[in-house]
Amino acid sequence: MTTATPASAATATAEGAGRATGPSAEELDGTDPLARFRDRFLPADGVVAYLDGNSLGRPLRQTGADFADVVAGEWGTRLIRSWDERWLDLPLGLGDRIAASTLGAAPGQTVVADSTTVLLYKMMRAAVAARPGRTRILMDDDNFPTDRFIAEGIARECGLELQWIPVDKAAGITIDLIDEALTAASGEAFGDRVALVVLSHVSYRSGHLADVAAITARVHDAGALVLWDLCHSAGSAPIELDAWNVDIAVGCTYKYLNGGPGSPAFAYVASALQNELDQPIQGWMGASDIFAMAEGYVPAKGMRRFISGTPPILGMLPMQGMLELIEEAGMPAIRQKSIALTEYTIRIVDDLLTPFGVQVASPRDSGERGSHVTIRHPRFKAVTAELWKRGIIPDFRNPDGLRLGLSPLSTSFGEVLVAVEAIRDILADTESAAEAGPGR
Ligand SMILES: Cc1ncc(COP(=O)(O)O)c(C=O)c1O
Ligand SMILES: Nc1c(O)cccc1C(=O)C[C@H](N)C(=O)O
Q1: Are 228 and 120 in contact (CB under 8 A)?
Q2: Where are the annotated segments for Disordered (predicted)?
Q3: For 28-43, how does the pLDDT look when each residue is reduced to its tens digit (9 = 90+)?
Q4: N or C terminus of the chain: which is more exposed, having fewer CB within 10 Å?
Q5: Is 266 touching ligand 1 by the criterion CB < 6 Å?
Q6: Ligand 1 centroid vs 228 CA: distance in angstroms?
Q7: pTM exceeding the 0.80 threshold for the entire prediction
């Protein structure tokens, strides 16, 4: 049976908390201009607080019906004709829609295809080949494992060096760190050994938000290309790829774009660079004339060349519903809600959890923070397991980080309060159990 939605269940317990330093969860939910969107998501049985939309966004209520329509219509009735009628254009059409609503990018520069990992490989491999003679890839040492592993593989495959940028886990990636790394990679001119720099816009661990425009400009001063991983920012933080002069970006669609488990990723390549990049997985769907069945691969002009095989059309369905919500709400309002959620989270963590020795690992300045707040405590692995039993779902990241993921369109302030109060109670219980000693 489906119980109350997380938002309403959580709001009921919000009374009073946090009043000393700011509005309560109940007041914040009551005045939230985006509150109406919460009801557009499917309620989850037994879940009282879902704070993991930065790993897997929630499904929309409409998603089941959208699938049924496609199965009966485009697939079931139009059958193979749907490729000509809509599907062949979908990777680029949907890419343009993501670009307009969330990436600050003009049409013709974004494609939806493959997993994030595969697109990262294709883009990194193409980028290093476009800077012949340069021998290094630079990447921060706290980047997400898949980014690191792909770069390690490409370095091995192409005989390049992978130079790690050592990041301060709290301060994230800064312009000073980039300057130091590029200086260390200089031969005759600033950073002239570097082919490609790969960074994440929002750190999956700390939630630190990088200054993309400034860092990109610095990388360009060195004559290198930059690839930004947007997994943790697309749909939750403002992005202006064209204005920031970004070369290449890749992001997933199952977090804040709510595309569902394994939904295909997107890649952006600035127009001026597209025909210079040769991607390594040369499949027929990226060829200049798909149905010519010709001998020899000739890449399509523009973004189509980054497609390899048949695109996962069904996997592109749920995100289309979510893009409608994002278009309706607008990214400025989404960012405002994200900031309000993370500020409230930090306020009540300070109020309720610092007495237990919990530390905030995310930046305290909202201008430097994405949409999740990571808090640290040595007992958080066990605390997370207990929270999950109670229907409160954040996630744990080694060695001691509990991530509170706040999805602006689906998370309520009440959910945050319920979670933080539960963390306090569990820490208090385990502390008193420890004091009582063994045998209790
Ligand atoms: C920064 C970042 N890059 C990449 C990925 C994942 O890649 P894939 O979608 O291929 O699993 C994630 C999350 O899973 C991520 O957080
Ligand atoms: N992509 C994931 C998956 O397939 C299973 C479990 C979790 C994930 C995640 O998204 C992890 C996430 N990117 C992270 O930031 O840790």
Answers
A1: no
A2: 1-31
A3: 999 999 999 999 999 9
A4: N
A5: no
A6: 12
A7: yes
